[in-house]
Write the structure tokens for this entry.
Amino acid sequence: MLVDVWYGIFNDRLIGPVFYDGTLTGQWHLELLQDLITDFVENLPLHQLRNVWFQHDGAPPHQISNVKQYLMETFQNQVIGYVGFVEWPRRSPDLTPLNFFLWGHIKGQVYATPPPTLQDLRRRITDPCASVTPTMFHNVQREIQSRVQMCIVANGEHFEQYK
């Protein structure tokens, strides 16, 4: 049983989950960003928006020109992830909060026992998010700083196994 899901983290808030079927395409990714992020950003006070950085990995759907243009306009070039913005190590799960924190938090509860149905799998993905507190997100923000230092020491290689 397989389900695809998108999440975002903003400071101490979780955006999502958004479940989708099929292959993530550049057009679908653009529409997702426009639907979720535009409203979110438009409701931020200007002083917060100036400090927002959008981070994502180098997946091909994230790199289409329409996505890149949307992100440039929305975040005024404050985008981490691929050439043209602030570069970030490719396939860097050790530095990405969704990978090193959120997925780990969710997976333990999702796969404690095999989910009997797709609906149950989706519920098991959604329910643990309610237990994520603002304090947990603040700890994640502090953790990123130490992880960047570990990445430098490891010459950009994976370092999670050394923690």
Observations:
- Residues 4 and 22 are 8 Å apart (CA to CA).
- The chain has a mean pLDDT of 87.
- Residues 4-162 form a domain with the Nucleotidyltransferase; domain 5 fold (CATH 3.30.420.10).
